[in-house]
Amino acid sequence: MKMTKEQKYRLIEQAEPGEIASLEKKVEQCHWRQEFHIQPSTGLLNDPNGFSYYQGEYHLFYQWFPFGTDHGMKYWYHLKSRDLVTWADAGIGIAPGDYFDSHGAYSGSAMAHEGKLYMLYTGNTRDRDWIRHPYQCMAVMDESGLITKWEHPVIPNVPEGYTDHFRDPKLWKDGDSFYCVIGAQRANLTGCAVLYRSTDLHTWQFQGELRTGLETFGYMWECPDYFELDGLGVLVFSPQGLEPSGDENHNIYQSGYVIGKSLDTGTRILEHGAFRELDRGFDFYAPQTMIDPQGRRIMVAWMGLPDIDCPTDPNGWAHCLTLPRELTLHEGKLIQRPIPELTTLRRKREERVADALTSESKTYTGFKGTAYELICEYDLLSAKACGIEFRASATEKTVIRYDAVSRKLVMDRSQSGEPVAASYGEIRQCAMNGDRIKLHLFVDTSSVEIFVNDGEEVFTSRIFPHPESDEIRFFADKGEALFQAVKWDFT
Ligand code: FRU
To answer: Where would you find this protein in the cell (predicted)?
Structure first.
């Protein structure tokens, strides 16, 4: 059910008596609630925000609209953790409602500095004619956990040459200067990212656009994130308006990165290679990274996309975040691995040591479930293909299949259960080589994250099967394959 403007732009204090409680009841009854992913208690979750480390804890916020699954009045909802696995609920982090964020506290980032956590975010406002006026605003958390918004925005205007699509600042510090990149749309309706600099976090100077080689690359870049890894510069962003081509760009909007020499903040030149999508699955958007005390670059993303209905909408909630992944560089490409801390979730273990598969699929005792971790390695002897059918039953299955002839790894969710965004296609695929393949799956009640060959590729997707669809079938095609698998339940 779509809400009216009035319903969408209410503050939480304006809830009808019992409204949130009755929504919570509806949410509880949903059989697609996740076991170990971050999800909203009611309403809609989107981008991860303010991912940071402060006073011995990881902090992670997400965009939250409490009243339903529309994109309405957005809050920053706050979680904290010592291990990136178990998250404590810290309540609302940033509430909108001031003149500079009257229509939502939109996405942004956070950085610890001199004993405080600084959060730079976009205040979304609409005037009487519903024209958007974005502001870049600051909120600060102190040692007691109290978050205070500054009285006035730090960047009150959109510079000339850009439209009101100007948001999602990502902060970092370099020497004595602070920088942020902001996602923008040029007046000619092409997307880009711009750079600001500050010496005190209060006053920010517009430096100009990042000079990438991507002059006409979509109509808007959301959620830019710049960081350095192994001495190279990486710009991650979520461009909107790219055309599908080959195996690329089949989701409604994309998320990806370019890598090059580190950004020259003076000339703003970022010499880089080709844009690559970060994920091969159906549901991945607006990732944000942080560097932790161990020096790891960790990324979390929204396991969802804008402008797509979700089968849980009628139950009053939508979407979740991905698991945290560590990013490393290998031969000019980002590698994503689930952080090792996730092994603490492992409970009951099942193992299948070296078994031969021929042209039929096999199931094994103990290898079933609706929330588990599964690592599976295949050695294609004479077989031409191999893979796994999971969350399977007589009528449903989600399939990951490696075809050694066409050299493609293909995920098929056409029979995964309740369809999602089917008009954007029900398979996703990418090129893959070799006669061995390792598939590392994190299956939750309504999602799967498949790490391929230790993070060379990742397929991240929501799936909406019946709770009874819990079989796991291993298969090889047109020949023999050797395989081994290990699985852990999470409960
Ligand atoms: C990306 C995005 C951001 C914006 C936020 C609003 O999904 O559209 O650009 O700040 O979501 O919730």
So the answer is: Cytoplasm
pLDDT in tens, 10-67: 999 999 999 999 999 999 999 999 999 999 999 999 999 999 999 999 999 999 999 9
Instruction: List pocket residues of ligand 1, CB cut-off 6 Å.
Output: 46-47, 63, 74, 106-107, 122, 167-168, 222-223, 285-286, 306
pLDDT of 328 over the 80 cut: yes
**Domain limit, last residue, from 315, 338, 361:** 338
End-to-end, the C-alpha distance of the chain in Å comes to 34
**What separation in Å is there between the alpha carbon of 330 and the centre of ligand 1?**
30
pTM: 0.98
Length of the chain: 491
SS3 19: helix
Domain boundary among 288, 315, 338: 338
Element containing residue 80 per DSSP (H, E): strand 75-81
Do 317 and 370 fall within a single domain?
Answer: no
Co-location of 168 and 113 in the same domain: yes
DSSP string, 151-183: SS-SB-SPPTTEEEEEEEEEEEEETTEEEEEEE
User: Which domain, by its residues, includes 421?
Assistant: 346-489
Contact assessment for residue 191 and residue 221, using Cβ atoms and an 8 Å cutoff: yes
pLDDT at 447 over 70: yes
What's the structural domain count of the chain?
2
ipTM > 0.90? Answer: yes
Query: Per-residue pLDDT averaged across 170-195, rounded?
Result: 98
Residue 254: both structure tokens together: 């994309």
How close is the Cα of 286 to the center of ligand 1, in Å? 8
- Is 47 in the active site? yes
Are 268 and 379 within one domain?
A: no
